[in-house]
Amino acid sequence: MASSKIRHMYDALLALRSLTDRATPVVATGAGGGYVDLHHIPAGNGTYVGTPGLPGALGDVAGLFGQRPFDVVIMIDSIDTTSGSETYSLKLQAVDSDKANPVDVPASSVTVTSSLVGEPFVIKVDPLTIGLAAPNAAFLRIEHVLAGATPSMKYFAFAAPDADV
Q: Is 152's pLDDT higher than 90?
């Protein structure tokens, strides 16, 4: 029997760009629209740990980023390559409790090419790396960077438990 290729389950509460938003193409550089609270990332076994009765109370609420590594899953539905001058990239950013002051998460930038269309890809994220780059980080977001004559991209992205656990 062949093993399943499905390693992650979409969760709207952890959407960095939702399934609904993916229907509208992005045509300029900007944030994906969703924010994930860094203290609400589920543990690798798919359960939440922390204070009973409080959803997702995971990690060190004092800002020490004690939660486990997690994955960010990105699915590109389409990109426009009509003129040949279009370029696309995605990067994860940490923002503060006001969802401001973005800081790029190290080693999280991905150049999007036509070979990635229709194939999910995963960025492994270590909360300790976020903490070192952005000590005031409270939320994670995704930013799309588009350039060229007619850039247009449809995608969705979400955080998920580490599939390797």
A: yes
Nearest to 144 by CA among 26, 12, 34, 35: 26
Please say whether the beta carbons of 97 and 35 come within 8 A.
no
Q: How far apart are CA 22 and CA 114, in angstroms?
A: 17
User: Running DSSP on this structure, what letter comes out for residue 129?
Assistant: H
Contacts of 13 (CB under 8 A, 6+ apart): 40
pTM: 0.80
pLDDT tens digit sequence for 4-18: 556 777 878 889 999
Taking residue 133's Cβ as centre, other Cβ atoms within 10 Å add up to 16
Assess whether pLDDT exceeds 90 at residue 136: no
**12-161 has which fold?**
Jelly Rolls (2.60.120)
Residues with Cβ within 8 Å of 156's Cβ and at least 6 positions away in sequence, in order, are 10, 15, 17, 18, 19, 21, 22, 74, 75, 77
